Structure formats: C-alpha cells, structure tokens
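One chain given next:
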Amino acid sequence: MGKASEVSSQRRLGTRKSKTGCRTCRLRHVKCDETPIACTRCTKAGFSCEGYDTERLAHKRKPPGITILSVLLPGQTTDERRSFNYFHSFTVPMMNGWFDHQVWNSLVLQMAQAESAIAHAIVAVSALQEVTESTGVAILPEDMADRTHRFALYQYSRSIEHLTTRMRSNDPNVRNTVLICCILYIVFELIRGKYNAAITHLQNGMRVLGAGIFDYHALYQAHPGLQRKVEDSVAAALVHLDLQSAHFGASIAHAQLDPGMLENGDNSWPEPVNFDSLQDAWVARDRIFLQFCMFATLCDSLSEANIAINFAILSKEQEKQQIQLLNFAQGLDRLEETRLRRGTLTEKDRGSLELLRMHHMGVSVITDSCLIKSPAVIRGLYSQRFRATVDLAERITARFLQKGRETAPRLTLLMETALIGPMCLIIDKCHDISIAQRALHVMESWPHREGLWDSTLASSVAGGRILKIREDSELGL
C-alpha cells in the first residue's frame, strides 16, 4: 500500500500543470513546457497555441462575498475569472445603486459570454475598480510599476484587439457589442482619471449610436436615441453620459438653443405621463434633464435686457417645462400608489423614488427662477425651496452612507446622476451662502464618482463658487 500510494503521489506531482503556461494548455488542463512564442506541446499535438498572458495578478485570497462562477468565461485564466466575478459581485450592484439598469444588471454580463471584447473590458475595469474600493480613492494615477495597472492595461488592449476584429464582421448585432465596449472603456478611463480619453470614447459611441443633434421640441414626446435599433438600455446609458458631458461643453448632440428656435418650434403642450416601472421614470427624468440643460443654458446666456425683449417666448417655454415637471411628479405619485396597493414597493424602490423627487425639486426651483437675474430676488423668493432640496439630499446621503457601512466594499462608483450634479447646480443658482455650504458638505461627505462627475473635483470647483457668493453678499448683491 505504501509503495502504491507513493507512486500515485509522484504521478500527481508529475502532471501538475503550470500556472504560467499558455492559454491553450491551461484550457486543456495539461502541463505547458512554456516554450517562447508557441509551446512545443501545442504544436506537436496540432493545437493552435494562443500564447501567454504578459501580465498576471499576484495571488490574492478570494474576497468575501465572491462566488467563483466556473461556468462563466470558459478558457479564461484564473485571474480573468476572478476579476469577472468581482465585477459581477460588487461592481454591478454598485452601478445599480438606485435603479436596476438592464445594461448593467444583465446585458453586459450576458454578452460577455459570447463577446471576448466585452469580457476583457470587464476584467480591465474590475481590476482597477477593486483597488479603488479597497483604498477609497476614486481616481487611480497611472503606475506602470504596479502589477494591477499592467494587468488592467493588458486586458484593455486585448479587448480593443478583439473588438477591432469583431467590427470587420457583417453581423448586424455588432453595434451592441461596440456600444457596450464604449461604455466600459469610458468607465475604465474615468477610473484612471483620463477624462479626454473617456470623452473620446463617449463621442465615438454616440456616433455609432447614430444620435445626431437632439430635436429640442421632440423631447416632450420621446427620449432621443431609444429608437436606434440597439438595446434601449444601452442607448439610454450613452445618452445619459452625453447629458453629463454637456455640463462640460463636450456633448456632440446638444445644439445651441436660441429664442428663434423656441418661437418656430412645436406649440403642443406636455401631456400627463404614466410610468410602468422605475426605469420608465428614470428615462423620463433624463428627457427633462436634457431639455432643462438646453433651456437653462440659453437663459444663462441672455442679459436681463434680452430676457425682457424675448420674455413672451421664454415665459411660454418656461410654462411648458413647468407643466412637464408637474406631470412627472404626478406620474411618480401614481407609480408609488400602484406599487403600494400591490404590495410590491421595496426599500430600494423607496430610495429610487426619493432620489427622483429630489431631482424634480432641484430642477423645478431652478426652472422657476431661470428668468430672474437678481441674486437678491432669487434669495428672497426661492431660498426655502432650495433649502428643502438640500434637506432631502442630506437625508438621501446619510441613508446611502449607512447602507455602505453595512456592506463591502466602499461605494465609490456609480454610472448615473445622483447627488453631485444637482448639488453643483444648487450651489451655482441659490445665491445663499448657508444653503451652498450645506450642498457642498453633501458632496464632501461622500467621495465617489457618478459617471463623468467626480465629487472631489466638483467640490473644489463648488468651493470657488461659494467664495464668489460670499463676495457678492458682502457687496450687497
């Protein structure tokens, strides 16, 4: 028995496969001789040697909460599967912080099974994201001496190689693959702090989507980009990011609005809306945000004299937006009543509705005050409503941070507008130092990213705006 056991043990030791072998041998579960370029074992057996991973992660103990899904991504390395599962277990729930977005909840993960470009992009994002979660740092400066950075960049380049090959096919479904890769590349570059590269990917994605200049008046009826022969959730995600980029002057889909366009546009009035789901409400909110962004930018650009000259046109458009906002709020109320009646309103749903109502409150007060140029008048008429919006934002933030303390890892990455953009708008528009400081504290209390918005950078810019409010107040403006 002793000899038999010894022979068996030696046989097992003799067939132990290499952890640094070629991808083909690892897939076949055989020992690789690791011959450079292409291993001898593959070539002698008639297999195509797929080469070696130039960068691999250092061995790490499996994080709590991750269940390795061996059925996923057959042929991938242990490191790739581990990063994919980190994305599945932690990154996706984070992306769905308030809303269950189909693009993150199912589509990206499903398509990764058949699309190598998406799978490698997921691994690249996940490798960097795990570092940000463990350190609490939203932006990782590039460090090529770091093994994780090299691994992530290697996965990123492999994704681009696969996507380039994929785009040569005549498959009509390739557009979805390209667009999802664009979204993942945007996330990857944002984590690295490469904003110009992220914007380039976004603009390329919008061109592939086929979204031209948005028809301002059509926004009263439909969300732009949803009728583009791609998955609605993919189109909505890209258009949402483009909306964020408009705040930085980087959107290629927003035309400069002028009074003539309003005067010659559609004269129909907004109609009541009903939402079958919170996703419907999220899409409707983005339509309102798009219009609000274009109209508010126009009003900001006009002098008090120009507003007076075009007051009839501007006030009519303001009234249409006010009606649209009222319809939105009533649609939320009906959705909540229906969910309550059916007993299907979850705690997450309550949080989502609360966030949408905070957005409605902020956009409504800025819309109501957008034709007023006097800071003193705005403070006198609207400070209470600005304050109520920040009150709600503080409650939302406190609840979300409490939720974050009860889970792991830290919540630093969202791909939807939550608090940063609205708080920046309130700081810019309220002309009240105490309200602005509270809004700034909301951002500073939770370092994180919401798509193109970074709370740390936004707080720095907002701090400068608060200094200007204080100076104006001292001058009696």
In short: Residues 255-373 form one domain. The chain is about 65% helix and 0% strand. Confidence is low (pLDDT under 50) at residues 1-18, 61-72. The first helix runs from residue 2 to 14.
